[in-house]
Specification:
It is built from 15 helices and ten strands. With 343 residues, it is an alpha/beta fold. It has two domains: 268 residues, TIM Barrel; 60 residues, no CATH class. α5 runs parallel beside α6.
Length: 343
Amino acid sequence: PLIPLRPLMEATIKYGFGQGAFNVNAVAQAKAAIEVHEMFRSPAILQGADLANGFMGGRTDFMNATLEDKKIGAKNIADAVKKYGADSDIPIVLHLDHGRDFDSCVAAIEGGYTSVMIDGSSLPFDENVDLTREVVKYAHARGVSVEGELGVLAGVEDHVFSASSTYTNPLKAVEFFRKTGVDALAISYGTMHGASKGKDVKLRKEIATAIRECLSHEGIFGALVSHGSSTVPKYIVDEINALGGELTNAYGISIEELQAAIPCGINKINVDTDIRLAVTRNMKELFVKYPELRTSASIGGIYELLEAKKSQFDPRVFLPPIMDTVMKGTIPDDDVAAIVNCV
Ligand code: G3H
Ligand code: 13P
Ligand code: NA
Ligand code: ZN
């Protein structure tokens, strides 16, 4: 069944575990992610980023996705997750990642998302509070949970690019929870988005500890979210490069650092890059194993894109040649099925 984020966050606080939250860019990925969570007998948080909704609405140039594209995509992914979730006995949260404005959050909620993030982190504090509060009012009235963000992560963040980071001020975080009523808050404490996080990153876990202690002292509920938490496994990077990729300077956050952040108060751990890397690896491997697919009428175009963009690892850049078939949900062609299996 589908549930909002809030009760799952209550459970992580009560029992002291960290819940992974995984980004999906396609219906097939949501299905695969649910199956893996079922295998581990774990609840699941699947998240579609703002522009990922545009992509899942059929917009191949997703960077230019409009609100209309996002509306269609939100409904596509929510309908699919509801369908798979109806047969599943694990609780599933469908969460909008980095919602950029009020209307994008509304589009996700109308589509069927059970949780939304409003990312006002690039705004001055008071404007971030006002925007987030407005989303909380709309979402909570509909039983939907809300995540906000305070502080700026370095790195590429969907539409937001920040050359440097600003750590979250713990006292401001507590004030933000009190003023907005958000269920969860993304904090900046040393992680960053993307595959180039730097070697041996140490997290400022004391930031999470301080927020958690102040919240419990003041009796305020609040889940803390660790964005930019991919581990960027060396073996996947090496495999991509052995298959002709050109990824350099690829480092993630170590699993030990992430695990150590959980007792400090981190409840939700966001992962997107690792999945993108795995899908890219799988697609490259397919064309190496089966060279005849390189000239396939239906998926040869994907091979050409993989060859032309060797440092790219966002599957959305490679998938446009089969967009129509994938979005219609009918996959008549064996070659297309082989690529869909890569996700
Ligand atoms: O948190 C950031 C996401 O990884 C960005 O994903 O490119 O789908 O917006 P996006
Ligand atoms: P990564 O780029 O480290 O996977 O972070 C994902 C994320 O924070 C999604 O919101
Ligand atoms: Na941000
Ligand atoms: Zn993020």
